[in-house]
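A quick aside before the break. I want you to see a complete sequence-to-structure record at least once, exactly as it would be stored in a machine-readable document. Don't worry about memorizing anything.
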Amino acid sequence: MSEHLTNRQIEGYRQRTLEPAELLALDDHLAECAACRRQMREATGARSTVLALQANLHDAAAQPGSWWRIADLFSPMSLRLAGVAVTALLIVALILLLRNWPDKRGDIVITPSPPPSSPIPQPSVNPAPDTLLALNDGAGRVTLDAQGNLTGLESLLPADQQRVKTALTTQKVVTPRTLRELKSASGDVMGSPTEASFALLSPVGKIVASNRPTLRWQPLRGAINYQVTITDPRANYKEVAVSPALSDAKWTIDHPLKRGHIYTWQVTARTESGEVKAPALNAPEAKFKVLEQAKTDELARAEKAYAGSHLTLGTLYAQAGLLDEAEREFQALVKANLESDVAKNLLRDVRAKRRALAQYRKR
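That is the input. The structure line, written in tokens, reads:
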């Protein structure tokens, strides 16, 4: 840098009488400027010589026969030494004066601004974005800001983070197209026109995680026993499982079904007056789908990695079509966020989708 220290700055730096901010500025300058460091050393040396002379005079005056000692200080040799010191001091002062003498461009000196009486607020480079929503989720807290940044779920895979963001911003869950296909009625009619009716309960129009699901239906008054038949529509309704005679209105399939397949099922109730089948005449087929192996593995990973995050698991269950499981997770989310409309709307949406899938059973 082209600027050099002034006499005032050199003396003030040596005496440490300058403001702290200015001393720091001079420290930085001396670290970079060899000329000013040399100037500082010269000034310090001259000052030391004068101080030594003053000390000798003081000591001489304090001792017995001080006048003789003082006179001795002013002997020809002493006077010559003092003259040398004074001359050196004058030369240094002259050099400093000439070095800092203003030229046509003006006097260039380092004059740090005095520190402000109070800190001046500086604009933030990255201002904190506005938080759109916040939810208690398990042992943590999840927030979403206006820029779409999701915090509190950093461990999620990018695809899972996007699913959660979509659920939070729309306050709805995404479900697979397969659920709508399971709801649609088949052209095949099951049952007879004279039979009494009873309803199949579950799984009907659902995707199930287990490949050995438990089937449930309403008990029929007067039924002696029941028998369940499961068929594969893709194999021309070939029977893939038949239950023994059952006294209870439920049955857990005794062998695993193929994952990714859609099945239909029917219950035959035996009474003293004959057989009654469900579904009833002109009712849609009772269908369910066994979840694919890849999706099963994905959910197993999520259940382990995201354990405790009701928001994440509820979203992923819904995306896989497991609405019962999704409803359970969103119920827990609402319980932890009783004042949150977002959590309530997610639960409402899951329940609405479940009701829509169950409507055809009443037709």
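Two observations worth writing down. The chain is about 45% helix and 15% strand. The first helix runs from residue 7 to 15. We'll return to this after the break.
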